[in-house]
Amino acid sequence: MTSVFGTDTGFYDISNDHLYLNLNDSDKVFNSDLSYCTLKQNGLTDTNMILNRESENPLLNQQYLRDIAKYEDNCKSSLIRNKSAIPISSKKVTIYSLISEMPYLSENKKIIDGSMYYDVLNNTDTPITYFAFDNDATEVAHEWLQQYNTVYHTREFLRANTLPFGLNPSTLVGKKIELTTKSQNNKIYMDGTGKELFVIMRNDILRNYEYYNNEIRIKVKGWIETNDKCWLYVLEAPIIPTILL
Prior knowledge:
Strand content: 15-25%
CATH superfamily of the largest domain: FAS1 domain
CATH topology of the largest domain: FAS1 domain
Structural class: alpha+beta
Mean pLDDT: 75
Largest sheet: 7 strands, mixed
Number of domains: 2
Order of helices and strands: EEEHHHHHHEHHEEEEEE
Strand order of the largest sheet: 5-4-10-9-8-7-6
Number of strands: 10
Low-confidence stretches: 1-21, 47-56
Radius of gyration: 36 Å
Shape: elongated
CATH class of the largest domain: Mainly Beta
């Protein structure tokens, strides 16, 4: 006779354990020459053996049997509950889902929702980078958008704040590089030569905008990477398209 959690040849404290015993063919019925194998060959099932034993022994407490059955069910339930949880699916983290969780980007999210640009920011097939502006810069964005007031121009504005690849900030340390956005012919410069990271726009051809300097420097306030190698940067101000086709 063998058991799942030990043997029948040794005894130990099993007050908190449930012992499952498996009969072997050589095991015999107590005080008889009938083996377990013989009983099985004669067509008796395990269930019949228990029921026959119960009917032939009037001293056997039926409530005791029911308690044992209930205890067994409780043991099985406990084993299931104690198994490590295996998630069926995990939530996908995208640039859009990150923006949705950041209240200080709520005005930027309204522009994204209004132009249905979330189709781009939710797409994880190809790594991208998006530059979001915080709520303090909303007036600057609306001032430009109100000049055109079309979904096309709004999406073009958002494309000018998007790079068609993932931009890891560690690659910018000590460098000043030119990058082309998803808005055709609109380029930006990333300056990582100082202690802080900046996005730079040249303003010599900006439409209807006047600035005191020859270039606009926008401070990068922070960044975060999604689980698909996409990057979200938070800027002090939006990137304004300089060329519209």
